[in-house]
Amino acid sequence: MSDSIRLSIKSMYTNLSEKEKKIADFILENPVVVGSNSINDLSETLEIAPSTIFQFTRKIGYQGFKDFKLALLTQGRSETEITIHENIYDSDSLLTKAQKVFDTNISTLLDTRKFLDQVALEQALEYLKDAEAVYFFGVGGSEIVATDAYHKFLRAPLRVHHSTDYHIQLMEASLMKPSDCAILISHTGRSHETIEIAKAAREAGAKLIVLTSSSQSPLALLGDAVFVSIAEETEFRSEALSSRIAQLSILDSLYVILMFERKKASKESMAKVRKRIAKLKAT
């Protein structure tokens, strides 16, 4: 597996059972110990059945514990060792606290970049190019990301739509056509409202592009093209805060790729917007 074990576990973490999360946490915090012990040793330490540990390694993409341990040892300590990037202390200066927040965001972007997939990018580009209309959906904090994307894609040669109200989003999704494309954003991929919107868009025959931090979430499983954002949770920040940075960057990437693909029409569209906006600027 080309991606680090840490990132693979992170992308599936929210869908793990409590016992599986206990196994995952121990692996992330003690990779060297896990790499030098047997499955029975790990079972005794965690007080979890060997069969559960074996199934966990299968769930994250390995043939079994031996295959997983070999990958763990091959990757080496530098890749598998968990890093708490923010790790802010009361004694830190204001500048240090701010710098550690930046470090966390930078780490989130680097981790998410490793999960970018060529096939998903190609699929998303085709859906956007062929779309009669593109709709941006998200609730709560994800709605802010959807609004930012809508504001950005207004400059593209596309018909784009976005509402901040959930009920209107649901109505829009139900009225979509097979020629339309929906971009759905949810950190957990388990937001009931966003899943309902996705189901409505799916029933209408539209293509679904999904941005989430959980590759096996219910929302991700509904998507035609899925992008995974990776984020670390810290004491005063939920994962959703860091994942927002990653999701904005994924959407930036899709926007730039589309604009390059339809360069002539994009230039014309941007020129119209800039000409109109320029009239509002102070002289």
Automatic annotation (TrEMBL):
This is Phosphosugar isomerase transcriptional regulator. SUPFAM superfamilies: Homeodomain-like, SIS domain. The keyword Transcription regulation applies. Residues 124-264 form the SIS domain. The keyword Transcription applies. GO terms for biological process: carbohydrate derivative metabolic process. GO terms for molecular function: carbohydrate derivative binding; DNA binding; DNA-binding transcription factor activity; isomerase activity.
